Every structure is written in structure tokens, then in C-alpha cells.
Amino acid sequence: GLNGHRHYMHKEIFEQPQAVVDTLEGRIANQEVLVDSFGASAAQVFERISQVQIIACGTSYHAGLVAKYWFEDILRLPCQVEVASEYRYRNPVIANNTLVVTISQSGETADTLAALKQIQALKDSRTELFIPTLTICNVPESSLIRASDLTFLTHAGPEIGVASTKAFTTQLVALALLLVAIGKTQKCLTAHREGLIVKGLIKLPGLISDCLAHEADIKLLAQSFADKHHAIFLGRGTMYPIAMEGALKLKEISYIHAEAYPAGELKHGPLALIDETMPVIAIAPHDELIEKLKSNLQEVSARGGQMIVFEDERSGVSSESNFNVIKATTNVGRITAPITFNIALQLLSYHVALIKGTDVDQPRNLAKSVTVE
Ligand code: F6R
């Protein structure tokens, strides 16, 4: 049941601290990631790979995009990410020693499954190739799980709302664990760095709860939105895919047209859209790009754009501007920041949809599991 929540989406947003705890359970011990969480042969596989190809759709694709920033930055491991419906039809080149990672809440998404089967067929016909496959999925015994060499189950629990929330969060946790598992097997991640990442993951449920405590402020902010027809989401680095995810959530449950841009791309076109009627949502963690992001925000505000900024304790946007700022979180790290900021965007979409009176759990035209092409 709904357990006192008005919608499954709301319930599932608030289940996220527990979903993270459950996904970490049995996968870490003594500040270490247990590599065989990905399967008994995971260490042997991870040792040999020299790049990663992630394939997914929708929200799961956005999780993959965040992971690309992590893998390349922290491990210096090449990582490509592609939506399954493009990957499978474009005759892609796949290098030997590539780990193929499919990400899916349902494990039944037709395009993702077809892409995986295509790779399996290639492996069957060219047995000299080493192209191991891994599925990160929320449903045991699903088609994707059955078709993969290695598997990792996110323990988000059943996700009923069509808009994916807690599954996405646990996919990111799984990808962070994968990063550490590969890094330690390949000896390109020190025990110290591993310990820091694991500590961050252990703190994550608390960080998410702190963000959920801002619901009243975010709800208030949603009121300035409900009469809008468009919105722009901005981010840099990992916050760019989080902006994409925020825009997707807003589109699918509130039917407001939303676009995400990397903040540095603004002046290459989208700045022309900005006027007083355009809400611009920026995700502004205190990282090495914050000063550049702030100058992007000034450009928007100078054109009359209605700025809404999600920042952390140290970003300093609220003290330097008169923008509408929500301190969504205390200072968070490289891995925990995108996961935490996304929670605030989930709440924003939810409350906008609530005001608009749309069917939050069953948006028009959408299905929970896309088993047709
Ligand atoms: C958006 C959403 C979809 C799914 C996509 C892939 O909120 O839920 O974009 O992420 O249809 O589904 P799975 O993850 O089941 O493969």
C-alpha cells in the first residue's frame, strides 16, 4: 500500500535512504567493496578489461552518463555510454576487452535486451574476443539478468511509480561500487581512496534524508512553476546528466517541456530562449566548476531568466546573488553529490505535478516497462 503517502512516487522518493542501505548490505565490509558482489568470476573479469561500454534507456541511461564522469576521472578508464535504441542499430565498433554494462530497473526493456543479445551473438561467432557483460538491475530473474555473464541486483524494492526514482539512486550506488571493484582489481585505486568512497556511500542515506527534509521549501518553489510551459535545467560535470534526469522527470510527470544543457553550452544557442517567462534550474555544488557556473547564471539572470538554484553549504550562490536558492545538501563528495542533488529535483517535479493535478504515478502515454520497440 501507500503507507500514508499520496502517491507511490512520493513513497518511493522517501524510501531512498533505506534503498541505499539495502543495496550496500553485504556488498561492503570494513571500508572495503566486496568484488564478488558482481559475481564469483568478477575479479578475473575486471582484471582484463580496458574499457567500459554502458548501454541503457531513459533514466537508467542517465545513471550511465554520471558513471562515465566517475570512471574516466577517478580510474582513467575509458567509458562510453549510449542509449540502447541507437547502439543496436548503428553497427557499433566494440573493442576487445570491453566490459559491456547494461543498466535497467525492470530488466525487460526491449532495446536494452536486444543490444545485449546482439553482443552475445558477436561473442558466439568470434570466440577469440573477450567482451564480458554485466547487468545492473532491480528485478531478479529478469531477461537481462538471465542474459548476462555478471549481475548486480539493486535492492531498491518494487518500484510502482512509472517515473523511476529509487531505482536510479540505487543504480548510481551500484555504479560507484563497480568503480571501486574495478579500481581495486586493476590496482589503480588506493585503499585510502576506496575507504573514502565507501565512507561516502555509508553517509549517503543520511545525506538523502537531510535533502528530503527540505521538502517544504521545494514545495513552495514548485508554485512558481505550475503555470510555466517550459523550463531549462543547467549543470556542469556530473550535474549535467543530473540536469537531464531532472528535465526528464519534469516532462514525464508534469508535462512541462524541459531541456537540460551543460551550462557552458548556453551561449551556443539556448541563451536565446531566456526571458522573464523562462524558469532556469541550476545545480550548483561547490566543486572546481562552481565559479564558471556562477558566471553562466549571471548571464541568464541578466536576460531576465527566473533563476532557481540548488546549492550546498559551500557553493555561496545565495550570499552572492538574489536568486531563489535552496541549500539542498551539506557539502558532499564527488560520488555522493550527484545522487543527493537529484533527490531535490525529484521532489521539485513531484510537487509541480501535484499542483498541476496530473496523474503522477501513471503519466499519460507511458508504461513502466517498455517491452516493445
Ligand atoms: C523515466 C523512466 C524511464 C526508464 C526507461 C528504462 O522515469 O522510468 O525512462 O528509465 O524506460 O527502463 P528500465 O530501467 O526498466 O530499463
TrEMBL record:
Positions spanned in the full protein: 270 to 642 of 642
Gene that encodes the chain: glmS_2
Quaternary structure, from the entry: Homodimer.
Domain SIS: 42-189, 221-363
GO CC, alphabetical: cytosol
UniProt function note: Catalyzes the first step in hexosamine metabolism, converting fructose-6P into glucosamine-6P using glutamine as a nitrogen source.
Group of enzyme by EC: transferase
Protein known as: Glutamine--fructose-6-phosphate aminotransferase [isomerizing]
Subcellular location: Cytoplasm
Reactions catalysed, as given in the entry: D-fructose 6-phosphate + L-glutamine = D-glucosamine 6-phosphate + L-glutamate
Molecular-function annotations in GO: carbohydrate derivative binding; glutamine-fructose-6-phosphate transaminase (isomerizing) activity
GO biological process: amino sugar biosynthetic process; carbohydrate metabolic process; fructose 6-phosphate metabolic process; protein N-linked glycosylation; UDP-N-acetylglucosamine metabolic process
